[in-house]
Amino acid sequence: MRYQIFVDGQDGTTGLKIHDYLSKNSNVEVIKIDSESRKDRDARSSLINEADLVFLCLPDSASKEAVSMVRNKRTKIIDASTAFRTNLEWTYGLPELHKHQRNSIQNSTRVSVPGCHATGFILAIRPLVAEGIIPKDYPATCYSITGYSGGGKKLISAYSDSKSDQLFAPRHYALSLNHKHLPEMQLHSGLNSAPLFTPIVGSYYQGLALSIPLFPKMFLKQITAKEVQAVLAAYYKDERFIRVMPYESDAYLEDGFFNVLECNHTNYLDLFVFGNKDEILLLSRFDNLGKGASGAAIQNMNMMLGFDEDLGLK
């Protein structure tokens, strides 16, 4: 059986990458909307209800509108916007979240793809909260550097067309401390409050590294950096896309420098632990267009349609 797939928002960064993945999958048939009809409600509604599964690569308001168009109980939805990530009627599309999450995704008709920064934060911190090492009221902080592709077409155009020194240097943003990923970072990490989060955009296309500094003196259990690495390794030991790197990770550095781009064009997420008895640094590295967006969407589709989870992703 070939499944009918529709990508609503097919010309955006995420939509184009999803189309690239789908073009290599013989189990699906992609149905497309004419460019002149992409904002036509009736045309979109017809394709949404024709499809077995729909990817929504749209702004929040447009995603909500698209969901309201579904007139049947058959069409499955994978939404890449922020609209439903904390909606408890939707399934959060992070199969590695805990041991029951994969089954929830497999049996769901409504799945929300996690935000890129949220993915890196949650996968690094949640196991330590779940294992009773970090208290739920821990005052977490994190910062993340990402390629400019995460900002969509407008930001891509700004970086691609400009020679400005201001764009050459990394730039902090969301300094009002209300980044749109914060609600899901709090809800799905197990913490009582969101982290103090500083995102940074760099002058390169894709690749993301998120850092979380931790102080063991504030933990519920006395544990070393090496033991933290062992906890993460045990938590993710059966996960095909999460790689917990050895504690002695200098071999993975380049003359002491961390390579943000190593996971680009893959669906892998690498977790590193650095530190000593007084200070610990968690680092998660992945492709913001892969595990942080389109790759995660395809991983969810594979589970929802009964394919091998890594089909087209390895």
TrEMBL record:
Superkingdom: Bacteria
MF terms (GO), sorted A to Z: N-acetyl-gamma-glutamyl-phosphate reductase activity; NAD binding
Active site: residue positions: 116
EC class name: oxidoreductase
Pathway(s) of this molecule: Amino-acid biosynthesis; L-arginine biosynthesis; N(2)-acetyl-L-ornithine from L-glutamate: step 3/4
UniProt xrefs under Gene3D superfamilies: Dihydrodipicolinate Reductase, domain 2, NAD(P)-binding Rossmann-like Domain
EC number: 1.2.1.38
Keywords linked to the UniProt accession: Amino-acid biosynthesis, Arginine biosynthesis, Cytoplasm, NADP, Oxidoreductase
Coiled-coil blocks: none
Location(s), subcellular: Cytoplasm
Annotated GO biological process: L-arginine biosynthetic process
A GO cellular component entry from the record: cytoplasm
InterPro entries documented for this protein: AGPR, AGPR_dimerisation_dom, AGPR_type-2, NAD(P)-bd_dom_sf, Semialdehyde_DH_NAD-bd
Ranges for domain Semialdehyde dehydrogenase NAD-binding: 4-105
Major localization class: cytoplasm
Catalysed transformations (reactions): N-acetyl-L-glutamate 5-semialdehyde + phosphate + NADP(+) = N-acetyl-L-glutamyl 5-phosphate + NADPH + H(+)
Family: Belongs to the NAGSA dehydrogenase family. Type 2 subfamily.
Functional summary from the UniProt entry: Catalyzes the NADPH-dependent reduction of N-acetyl-5-glutamyl phosphate to yield N-acetyl-L-glutamate 5-semialdehyde.
Protein name according to UniProt: N-acetyl-gamma-glutamyl-phosphate reductase
Native organism: Cohnella cholangitidis
